[in-house]
Amino acid sequence: MHELAVTQSILDISLRHAGEAGAKRITDINLVIGQFSSIVDDSVQFYWDIIAKETIAQGARLHFNRIPGEMTCNACGHTFRPTDETFECPACSSVTVRITKGEEFRVESIDVE
Amino acid sequence: MTTRIPIVENILSANDRMAARNRDLLDQAGVYSINIMASPGAGKTSLILKTLEALNGRLKLGVIEGDLATSIDAEKAAAAGLPAVQINTGGDCHLDAAMLADALPTLPLEDIDLVLVENVGNLICPANFQIGTHLNVLVASIPEGDDKPYKYPGMYRGVQVLIINKIDLLPYVPFNMDYFKRGVEILNPGVVTFAVSSKTGEGMDEWADWLVERVKNNGG
To answer: How far apart are CA B147 and CA B134, in angstroms?
Structure first.
């Protein structure tokens, strides 16, 4: 699990941008996280409550906008949602597919006062 | 009064920037580098030592060993005559670019053609953290089972080379190679693959020859 390193990065990014804007307090952090990005929301929130203490981000709410995975078949161009069992194209059964959504892993915006 | 500040910044961007700096440092020194990832016990350290043997002096190696604790692996590499440095992550499940940035200057880079970085044994986290090496290599071993590509897709998707180790155990372990390779093909079509045994030495020459070519083509 690397949620601590991830949470520290989210805090660093948020504090830097809030500082540049001259904000007094960060109230909300809006994250965009794809299905294939392996982090556990609850763990991030757990670490957040510890490492954000005594910063202007203390008490900020974390919002996880989860993007479902999407794949596109290289053989027939069909776009589909993969299941847990298989990445096979449901239209033509090809397995040469590429991920077109679900790898997002970014801080989208912060709300500040 | 609340204001929204748009950011749109990758969460691991600081790590990625540091990884890019590591790459610059390596390129300036004319050193090629590979990041060796695997589960614990897949045979990463043995593979490094066997690779040294198979290279037979064709490349000058340096080794960076990543573990939660102990310097056992670095001592093994040093005993084989390699310049070696141990990184103890103190509990972190992966190496990150900052750890490599600290370790690289402690190696005599001017006397090295190729740095082998042995990542922490783990099939999940190391795939998320680029460290700046030229090549990501995954060592999969037969006793782990043939379902690992399906269970750890992030790792299998993120590598340029796959080494299947411990093939000497194929007669003794239930392992369906077709099923395994089908999973790999879905996740990482055409990935460069070697089947080896660090124990018997089978396949090691092919891997070592490929590595020599790769390093030379990089201008190393």
So the answer is: 28
